[in-house]
Write a sequence for this structure.
């Protein structure tokens, strides 16, 4: 799977598409899918809201994304 600093989400998209409804119902998996969707759609507000409530110490994994997404969000808002 791609390291968080890359933007290649091909394998991640494939993995999410293979999840069953039972898998998606698990709190940590549901949070991960919502986080993936927020990143994929550029929804920075939702991403940072999810970062604050990450279950099972998932915030430590999300720490790898925060700086990159913060810079991307600021660039987008500056251009607007």
């Amino acid at each position: 799977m791609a390291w968080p600093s890359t933007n290649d989400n091909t394998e991640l998209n494939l993995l999410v598409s293979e999840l069953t409804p039972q898998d998606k119902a698990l709190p940590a998996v549901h949070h991960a899918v919502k986080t993936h969707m927020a990143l994929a759609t550029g929804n920075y507000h939702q991403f940072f809201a999810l970062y604050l409530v990450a279950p099972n110490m998932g915030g430590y994994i999300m720490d790898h994304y925060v700086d990159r997404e913060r810079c991307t969000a600021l660039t987008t808002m500056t251009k607007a």
